[in-house]
Sequence to fold (284 residues):
Amino acid sequence: MRIFDPHIHMTSRTTDDYEAMYAAGVRAVVEPSFWLGQPRTSVDSFTDYFDALLGWEPYRAAQFGIRHHCTIALNPKEANDPRCAGVLDVLPRYLAKDRVVAVGEIGYDSMTPEEDKALARQLELAVEHDLPVLVHTPHRDKAVGTRRTLDVVRESGIPPERVLVDHLNELTVTMVADSGCWMGFSIYPHTKMSEDRMVRILQEHGTERMLVNSAADWGRSDPLKTRRTADAMLAAGFDDDTVDQVMWRNPVEFYEQSGRLDLDDAGPDGTALFEGNSIKRGGE
Fold:
């Protein structure tokens, strides 16, 4: 089984996690830039973080045979801090980097005017840099926030097939499906979505444009939730090809729109892991 986790914050995880992920079949990840838990107080703290996502973290992942890409953005929560507004001015420098496969996470946290401005500007940057977009839906008032997000996306003119709307649930999946955007689901131990709920959504809505992620970070989370969801799909009667579509081919198809997704890499022992989009070694 091959797994591509399209949304995981490995900066917050240990090398033990990388080792366990590889053993579970994870061969590629995308790490979106996000709020680190402690408020950042200057633009320079963001640039140091972005540099780590582009340099140190891909190196660390490669030691365990996992290909690492990232998305870059000013996250919604910190868009409200005037000390961080200058991040929008340095983003073009980072959005030109090879390992950046989308603008994100962008979207809403508290749905403030400052978040409106940051979201609209970063959608403009995505169009200017010909990149797809990863959108964070708010934890509070999720249905209202998701509807408002979709309105802003439509107004921006970015094609919906280049937009991934994440952290969805049963209340928001239909509106995003109808919009033409991609649908992302974060599987968590006690919040957001569970494996069983995810399986029921796939049974009801199908597997097209569906992405499953662990969104594992510094909080109570599990970087193996993608594998656990894949196993739950198999137990519910989905076949191997359908599981591969959700866990590998869908994230590949979405992030390939950046023109920067590179899955040809070498593992720790120097042998090739990938040939095109197929795992060559160690994928079972």
In short: The longest helix spans residues 113-128. The beta strands are 3-5, 26-32, 67-72, 100-107, 133-136, 163-166, 182-186, 210-213, 274-275, 278-279. The chain is about 40% helix and 15% strand. The CA atoms of residues 43 and 89 lie 10 Å apart.
